[in-house]
Design brief:
The protein is an alpha/beta fold and about 350 residues long. It has helices at about 20-30, 35-50, 120-140, 155-165, 180-190, 200-205, 250-255, 265-270, 285-290, 310-325, 345-350; strands spanning about 15-20, 60-65, 70-75, 80-85, 100-105, 115-120, 145-150, 170-175, 195, 210-215, 220-225, 235, 245-250, 255-260, 280-285, 300-305, 330-335. Helix 2 packs across helix 3 (about 120-140), helix 2 crosses helix 4 and helix 2 (about 35-50) packs across helix 10.
Length: about 350
């Protein structure tokens, strides 16, 4: 793989490829969901290996009592990408998504957009793919059983990404809302996974080598207590993703080797906001690049404290754009003014009368 080339998919400078929600769904089905997740994971892992090339900054967040709106920018020097994303847990009560997003990939050399894409669906896919990439390097060897605490919009994506990338064959599901668990079990029927519905978090964790927490409430919460977590497991904590929102008891963190995406962001938003700012953590890119050891022993508890980072969205946009020419699942959006004389934008306006 190489960096996304700074080339248009057409010869008309005013047109920018636009991937709608409908296009994204058709693209996933054309490729196949598990293949899509596996290939997306490869792109994410490749970009983690070249982590040092990227511009990195914590996301720009605007917080309110209702939720958060964020911008997540980055660049590898050849292409620039950003994502607009919100997080509003109360939205589900009104029949709305708690997370919605869109993103742009642009050419650094010209500043011209290369693609505009929906990212509500794509964020769900990339979050699951990132989790699976981390588990590939941190989970116990031969892990086959996964517990998922929180069976909302992310649940099925997580299960299928871990199946495709890590070889999981059993998922144990729990949610405080039994209807959410029933929904996930129904959606995963026929996936090749053995699905077990569990009435308590303790029951879900029983026999699991991997534990994923992905709840939505915007508050300090204790989804896992210290006595629930035994030696040797890998915890994939993805629900705590903003200041004041956590899922794990602090004592679990103190027993774990913690791996994060970008420490300046995770210390504000992740589970480790509960710890001293100097508490040692390792960066996932260092593990993937072979600079830091991941899992070192059978009794070790590894914790991926994931809050999502801009490079992962960049990888997802890069992957999608690389599929467009072959699949055609996009529309040309008349987004950029393209006058005959670049200095005569006014003349272009007047001639349109």
């Amino acid at each position: 793989m190489t960096r996304t080339p700074a080339l248009a998919l057409n010869d008309t400078l005013n047109l920018v490829p636009f991937v709608s929600v409908d296009h994204m769904m058709k693209l996933v089905h054309a490729i196949g969901l598990e293949r899509f997740l596996t290939e997306l994971a490869d792109y994410i892992e490749e970009d983690f290996r070249r982590w040092e090339l990227f511009d990195k900054t914590p996301r720009v967040a605007s917080h309110s009592a209702e939720g958060v709106i964020e911008l997540m920018p980055t660049s590898d020097g050849a292409a620039y990408g950003f994502k607009y994303v919100n997080g509003h847990p109360k939205n589900s009560r009104e029949g709305r998504q708690t997370v919605t997003a869109f993103g742009v990939l642009a050419d650094v050399a010209t500043g011209y957009p290369l693609m505009l894409s929906e990212m509500t669906m794509l964020t769900a896919l990339r979050t699951a793919a990132v989790s699976a990439v981390a588990a590939k390097h941190l989970a116990p060897k031969g892990a086959r059983v996964m517990a998922i605490i929180g069976n909302g919009a992310q649940c099925e994506f997580q299960a299928l990404a871990f199946k495709a990338v890590c070889g999981i064959d059993t998922v144990r599901l729990h949610d405080i809302d039994p209807a959410a668990t029933a929904k996930s079990a129904r959606n995963l029927a026929g996936s090749g996974l053995r699905v077990v519905r569990c009435s308590t978090p303790q029951a879900a964790i029983e026999g699991a080598q991997i534990i994923t927490t992905c709840t939505a409430d915007k508050q300090y919460a204790t989804i896992l207590t210290d006595n629930m977590v035994g030696a040797g497991v890998h915890i994939n904590a993805i629900g705590g993703d903003c200041p004041g929102k956590t899922e794990l008891h602090r004592d679990i963190l103190l027993r774990s080797d913690i791996f994060v995406e970008y420490p300046p962001q995770t210390r504000i938003e992740g589970e480790i906001q509960q710890l001293d700012p100097r508490h040692p953590v390792a960066e996932l890119w260092q593990v993937i690049a072979g600079k830091v050891a991941g899992r070192k022993g059978a009794a070790q508890i590894t914790l991926f404290d994931s809050v999502g980072f801009a490079t992962e969205d960049f990888s997802a946009l890069r992957y999608v754009r690389d599929q467009l020419a072959a699949t055609g699942h996009y529309a040309d959006l008349d987004l950029l003014a393209d006058p005959d004389d670049p200095r005569d934008l006014y003349g272009m306006l007047m001639r349109a009368a």
